[in-house]
C-alpha cells in the first residue's frame, strides 16, 4: 500500500472535492496568485512598478485606453510574463497593484493574458468541439523544453491522492502517439525545438497544445537568453495558455478542464469575469 494511501485511510480523507462547485475550495483560498490592478489611475510621473518588474510584464496601457478621466496614466499587466514575485505590489505607492488569490487564469488566446481593467472587450463564447470529441478521457504527453523543474514539481502533485487527476479522466502517457494534448513547460531552448516538433508531429489528429507557466508562454526570467527561448508560441500552435511561476496543481486542473469545455474561462478581453 502506498504511504499516501495509508495516511488518507488513517485520517478518513484523501482526495479534495475540488473542482466541484462550492466544494473543497477552502484549500485554494489561501493561495497567493498573480497581482491585480485596480481601476484607479496612476500618477502621470510614476513608473515604480514598471521599473521593479524583472520580466517586463507591466507597461503603460495602449493609447486607446491609456489615459483616465483625470489625464493620469494607466497600467496593463501581462500575465503571460508575470512570475508572481509581488515586487510591483511592494513598490506601488498608491496601492493600485495588490496581491490577489487569482490563480485559475488559463486562456485560449494569448492576448487575453494582458490584464487591463479599463479595456472594453466583450467575452467570447468558448468553442464546443472539445466536449463532443473527448467525453471520457484525455491523454497528455508532457515535454520539458528547458524548465527549472518548478512546473514539473506541480505536475507530480497532480498524481497524489489529494488532487488525484485520474478521477477526472485525465492521464499522462509516455508516447506522443497515444497523446491528445502536448503539454509544454520551459522556455523552449534551441536544442529542444526539434524534439518538441517531433513530439507534436507524432501525435494523431485531433491534437492540442497547452503551454504551462510563464516560461513556456513568454520565456519569463530567462527569455531569449544565450541558452533559452521565448516560449512555445511560434514553434507549435498553442490552444491554451496557463500563466504562473509555477501554476498550482489546481490551476493546472482548471486549465485542462477549460480545454475540455468542462470549466469556464475567467479571463476574457483583458478583464477577469467572476
List keywords for this structure.
274 residues, alpha/beta, Rossmann fold, 5-stranded parallel beta sheet, 3-stranded antiparallel beta sheet, 12 strands, 24% helix, globular
Detail the topology: elements first, then pairings:
Layout: H1 3-11, H2 26-29, E1 36-37, H3 48-52, E2 58-60, E3 75-78, H4 87-91, E4 97-98, E5 114-115, H5 129-133, E6 138-144, H6 150-157, E7 170-172, E8 181-185, H7 190-202, E9 208-212, H8 214-218, E10 240-242, H9 249-259, E11 267-268, E12 271-272
Parallel strand pairs: 6-7, 6-8, 8-9, 9-10
Antiparallel strand pairs: 1-4, 2-3, 3-5, 11-12
Strand order of the largest sheet: 7-6-8-9-10
Runs with pLDDT <50, length 5+?
65-71, 121-128
Query: What value does the Rg take, in angstroms?
Result: 19 Å
Name the helix and strand elements from N-terminus to C-terminus, one letter apiece: HHEHEEHEEHEHEEHEHEHEE
Q: Main β-sheet, in a few words? A: 5 strands, parallel
- First-to-last CA distance: 42 Å
Query: In DSSP terms, counting alpha (H) and pi (I) runs of 4 or more, how many helices?
Result: 9
Helical amount: 10-25%
* Mean of pLDDT: 83
CATH class of the domain at 129-265: Alpha Beta
CATH topology label of the domain at 129-265 = Rossmann fold
Instruction: State the shape.
Output: globular
Beta-strand residue percentage: 5-15%
Per CATH, the architecture of the domain at 129-265 is 3-Layer(aba) Sandwich
Tally of DSSP β-strands:
12
Structural class label: alpha/beta
Amino acid at each position: 500500500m502506498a504511504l499516501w494511501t495509508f495516511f488518507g485511510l488513517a485520517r478518513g480523507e484523501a482526495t479534495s472535492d475540488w473542482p466541484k462547485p462550492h466544494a473543497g475550495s477552502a484549500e485554494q483560498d489561501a493561495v497567493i496568485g498573480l497581482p491585480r490592478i485596480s481601476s484607479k489611475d496612476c500618477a502621470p510621473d510614476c513608473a515604480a512598478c514598471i521599473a521593479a518588474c524583472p520580466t517586463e510584464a507591466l507597461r503603460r496601457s495602449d493609447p486607446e485606453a491609456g489615459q483616465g478621466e483625470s489625464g493620469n496614466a494607466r497600467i496593463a499587466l501581462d500575465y503571460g510574463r508575470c512570475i508572481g514575485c509581488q515586487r510591483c505590489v511592494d513598490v506601488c505607492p498608491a496601492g493600485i497593484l495588490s496581491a490577489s488569490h487569482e490563480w485559475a487564469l488559463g486562456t485560449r488566446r494569448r492576448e487575453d493574458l494582458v490584464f487591463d481593467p479599463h479595456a472594453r472587450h466583450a467575452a467570447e463564447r468558448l468553442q464546443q468541439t472539445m466536449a463532443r470529441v473527448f467525453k471520457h478521457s484525455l491523454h497528455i504527453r508532457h515535454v520539458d523544453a528547458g524548465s527549472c523543474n518548478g512546473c514539473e514539481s506541480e505536475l507530480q502533485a497532480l498524481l497524489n491522492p489529494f488532487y488525484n487527476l485520474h478521477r477526472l479522466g485525465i492521464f499522462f502517457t509516455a508516447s506522443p502517439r497515444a497523446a491528445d494534448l502536448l503539454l509544454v513547460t520551459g522556455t523552449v531552448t534551441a536544442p529542444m525545438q526539434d524534439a518538441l516538433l517531433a513530439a507534436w508531429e507524432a501525435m494523431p489528429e485531433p491534437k492540442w497544445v497547452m503551454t504551462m507557466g510563464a516560461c513556456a508562454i513568454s520565456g519569463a526570467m530567462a527569455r531569449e537568453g544565450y541558452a533559452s527561448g521565448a516560449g512555445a508560441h511560434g514553434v507549435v500552435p498553442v490552444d491554451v495558455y496557463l500563466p504562473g511561476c509555477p501554476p498550482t496543481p489546481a490551476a493546472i486542473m482548471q486549465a485542462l478542464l477549460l480545454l475540455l469545455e468542462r470549466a469556464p474561462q475567467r479571463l476574457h478581453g483583458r478583464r477577469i469575469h467572476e
